[in-house]
Amino acid sequence: MFAIVSLFAVLVGFAVLCAVAAVSAVLLKVAFKVVLLPLKLLVIPFILIAVIVKFALVVAFGAVILALIVPILIVGALVATPIAVGFLLK
Prior knowledge:
about 100% helix; about 0% strand
C-alpha cells in the first residue's frame, strides 16, 4: 500500500512540475516578446531602407541590361533586314 501511495505522490509531483514548467515557459515567451518589441520597432526602418535600396538596385540593373540589349537588337535588325529581303525576292 505504501508503494502505491508513494507512486501516486511522485506522479502528482511530476504533474505539478510539468505545470510549473509550462507556465514558466509561457511567461518567459511573453517576457521576451515584451522586451524585444521595442527593438523590433527600432529595426523596422532599417529593414525598409534595405528593401528600398534592393529594389532600386534591381531596377538599375534592369535598365543597364535593357540599355545593352536594345542596340544589339537594332544592329541585328539592320543586318537581318537585307537578308530577309533577299530571301523574299528569290
